[in-house]
């Protein structure tokens, strides 16, 4: 049973295989959080866990039985203005300007499974093991109803939380903040681990100890952003990959977010997750409601690998489009770094022909196929083929590509518009821009007002035509600038602070419409690389372009960091040319492949220019990848050595098959050291009793030997056979195969 409710309806215990989450209704009708962490037995009441001591100099009030000091209570969904001075989970303003609310428990509802939200991406489950609990709270004075929603996914140790506000009164209300989830932990002995960076260096692990006061990460870019990802961990300081207590928080949302931890005067830690209250408010007229995005909460006492694995399993089964979630993703070639804007049909077909010969399965035509887009100053919004480049049209190219036995994919940037476009000339008011101000360009382009239905409809119609005419199998949906000058020409003046959220709802609407109309099209999301690598888009697009940075070394950091919060099957990973376009670095074809294997493999270089040797290498890589694709995309992922720790000179990771009969570990050396210390690789996740060969070795090893004693790695560099030794920027794969 996932949700246990005490008989007098006072204590609610959400229990997964390994985690408990408990709260109760207090005597005054408000909710008190009791516990979130490793599973405990269910009881009628937890008096010890809710014992309060009267402290001096605090707001307080009494009932017959109890003594309340709101600032000292672990709240379930806190308000502001009645004595809890920590930042609240929500705030609602009345017509008279008052922001004081009091939510009291009314009732609960328990149901099997988890229904999808209607306008937002969300978790889902039909399965009976999953249960959804809804707690209804009411502020009687103003008729504000708040429903706290919890879905319990027992086998992934995940709880999904969200909040729905409804106005059942007569006056107009204004929501000033509406976080999705609040957790009040009883102490503050935690590291706050976030995944931060910038364009081309996304999601590097950042660890800081939490201290008294507020620490947070956020976005105000109307996108989850390259700079901060909505995914955070709170871990006990001694937590390792395989041991220790760790909480995970994420948000199924792609817009402005806030992940905040406030350490109080008594060293409790309040974790708030949701839409960033900056640049947000929502008018809640009588008889209307507002649903927050869903927050994903998880816990493990077995360290960071375990929490990443259970989250990956959860996304695979309860978030990602089930049509694709477990389907092997095609190996692709993308023409962007091969041609940029300079191509014609002949050039593209030469790439496609070579691709087919080398074992590629999907050809993706990137930016530059529409309007008269010969550079990035023009044509966004005019999704009509450029007849100068493709005189016979897209359908002709697509037919040729399909004839080669390849799937055909196309790049769009649906949310954008160029000044130099018919779309802008015909509908200048469709662009987001503040009245009488010169709009701020980003990559020479501007953003369409996706809060408008007519805009979403227009783009839907154009994209649908292109999908039908060229029988598209795949779409790369890009988004290459953040929103500035946030103002919608259609929204009333008083609703302008709704734009950021309404914009994201419009993006979701277009995705959903396209998926409903063309269920077989595979979407890959992209935002100048990894600027919107989030769960909101993952609901629609089963894979995402992890970063514009294709340098193999930089990708080790990016993919390592991303792996904490997201499964391998969601990470687009490509081999590109050297010297690398972003770093100028020279790495071997092997190293580039060995990094890109751990994700959805692709090639993004002019493969018609490869030497015979490189072509052979590429063919071998693709054959090897296809043979092990299930493992590389869906295997259980283990981080073994972090490039973010120590001198950052080495990274080791591994994938293991579900039946534990196969595993592939990879070791990446950044700079080589002469005459180094002896080295062993300690495998993880193998079956201790099975016997394995490593890279077809003669010697046979028990799983426990490989995990506990390790596997000796030769390092002495043999200049004639660099694969056998260590070198700068080198990589080694260790394929463990169980023997009968
Ligand atoms: C962004 C993407 C790239 C490529 C270009 C095209 O930068 O991240 O992969 O599609 O746009 O303009």
Describe it.
- This protein is α+β, with helices and mostly antiparallel strands and 740 residues long.
- The protein has 3 domains: 82-318, Distorted Sandwich (Beta-galactosidase, Chain A, domain 5), CATH 2.70.98; 332-634, Alpha-Beta Barrel (TIM Barrel); 639-739, Immunoglobulin-like (Sandwich).
- 19% of the residues lie in helices and 30% in strands.
- It contains 13 helices and 40 strands.
- Strands 8, 9, 10, 11, 13, 14, 16, 17, 21 and 22 form a 10-stranded antiparallel sheet that branches.
- Helix 6 packs parallel to helix 7 (499-517) and helix 9 runs parallel beside helix 10 (589-596).
- The chain is globular.
- The two termini are 39 Å apart.
- The mean pLDDT is 96.
- Bound molecules: alpha-D-galactopyranose.
- Alpha-D-galactopyranose is lined by residues 336, 366-367, 411, 478, 480, 526, 528-529, 545, 548.
């Amino acid at each position: 049973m996932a949700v246990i409710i005490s008989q007098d309806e006072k204590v609610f215990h959400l229990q997964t295989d390994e985690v408990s989450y408990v709260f109760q209704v207090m005597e005054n009708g408000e909710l008190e959080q009791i516990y979130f962490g490793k599973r405990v037995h269910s009881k009628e009441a937890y008096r010890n866990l809710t014992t309060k001591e009267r402290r001096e100099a605090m707001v307080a009030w009494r009932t017959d039985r109890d003594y309340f000091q709101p600032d000292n209570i672990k709240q379930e969904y806190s308000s502001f203005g009645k004595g809890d001075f920590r930042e609240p989970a929500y705030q609602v303003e009345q017509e008279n300007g008052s922001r004081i609310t009091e939510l009291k428990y009314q009732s609960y509802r328990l149901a099997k499974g988890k229904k999808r939200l209607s306008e937002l991406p969300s978790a889902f489950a039909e399965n009976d093991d999953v249960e959804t609990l809804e707690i209804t709270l009411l502020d009687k004075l103003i008729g504000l109803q708040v429903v706290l929603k919890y879905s319990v996914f027992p086998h992934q140790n995940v709880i999904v939380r969200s909040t729905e506000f409804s106005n059942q009164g007569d006056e107009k209300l204004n929501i000033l903040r509406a976080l999705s989830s609040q957790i009040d932990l009883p102490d503050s002995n935690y590291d706050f681990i976030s995944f931060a960076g910038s364009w081309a260096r996304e999601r590097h692990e950042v660890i800081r100890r939490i201290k008294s006061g507020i620490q947070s990460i956020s976005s105000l870019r109307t996108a989850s952003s390259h700079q901060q990802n909505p995914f955070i961990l709170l871990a006990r300081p001694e937590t390792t990959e395989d041991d220790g207590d760790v909480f995970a928080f994420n948000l199924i949302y792609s817009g402005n977010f806030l992940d905040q931890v406030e350490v109080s005067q008594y060293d409790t830690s309040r974790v708030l997750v949701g839409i960033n209250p900056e640049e947000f408010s929502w008018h809640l007229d009588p008889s209307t409601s507002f649903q927050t995005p869903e927050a994903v909460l998880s816990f493990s006492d077995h360290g960071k690998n375990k929490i990443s694995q259970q989250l990956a399993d959860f996304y695979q089964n309860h978030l990602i489009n089930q049509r694709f979630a477990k389907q092997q993703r095609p190996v692709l070639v993308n023409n962007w770094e091969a041609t940029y804007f300079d191509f014609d049909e002949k050039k593209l077909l030469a790439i496609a022909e070579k691709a087919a010969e080398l074992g590629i399965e999907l050809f993706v035509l990137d930016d530059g196929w529409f309007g008269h887009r010969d550079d990035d100053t023009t044509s966004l919004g005019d999704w009509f083929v450029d007849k100068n480049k493709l005189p016979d049209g897209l359908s002709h190219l697509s037919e040729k590509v399909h004839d080669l036995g390849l799937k055909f994919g196309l790049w769009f940037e649906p949310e954008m518009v160029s000044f130099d476009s018919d779309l802008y000339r015909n509908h200048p008011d469709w662009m987001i821009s503040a009245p009488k101000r010169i709009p701020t360009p980003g990559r020479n382009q501007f953003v369409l007002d996706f809060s408008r239905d007519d805009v979403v409809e227009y783009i839907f119609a154009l994209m649908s035509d292109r999908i039908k005419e060229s029988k598209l199998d795949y779409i790369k949906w890009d988004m290459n600038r953040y929103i500035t000058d946030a103002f919608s020409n259609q929204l009333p003046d008083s609703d302008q602070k709704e734009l950021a959220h309404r914009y994201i709802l419009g993006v979701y609407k277009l995705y959903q419409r396209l998926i409903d109309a063309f269920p077989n099209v595979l979407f890959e999301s992209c935002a100048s690389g990894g600027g919107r690598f989030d769960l909101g888009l993952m609901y629609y697009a089963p894979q995402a372009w992890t970063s514009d940075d294709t340098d193999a070394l930089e990708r080790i950091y990016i993919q390592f960091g991303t792996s904490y919060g997201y499964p391998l099957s969601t990470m687009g990973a490509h081999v590109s040319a050297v010297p690398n376009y972003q770093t100028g670095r020279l790495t071997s074809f092997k190293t580039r492949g060995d990094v890109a294997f751990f994700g959805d493999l692709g090639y993004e270089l002019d493969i018609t220019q490869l030497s015979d040797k490189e072509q052979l290498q590429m063919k071998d890589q693709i054959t090897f990848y296809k043979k092990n694709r299930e493992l590389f995309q869906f295997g259980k992922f283990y981080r073994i050595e972090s490039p973010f720790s120590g001198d950052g000179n080495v990274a080791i990771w591994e994938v293991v098959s579900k039946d534990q009969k196969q595993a592939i570990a990879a070791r990446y050396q950044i700079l080589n050291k002469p005459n180094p210390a002896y080295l062993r690789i300690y495998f993880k996740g193998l079956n201790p009793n099975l016997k394995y060969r490593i890279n077809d070795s003669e010697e046979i090893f028990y799983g426990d030997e490989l995990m506990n004693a390790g596997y000796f790695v030769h390092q002495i560099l043999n200049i004639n056979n660099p694969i056998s030794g260590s070198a700068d920027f080198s990589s080694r794969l260790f394929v463990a195969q169980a023997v009968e």
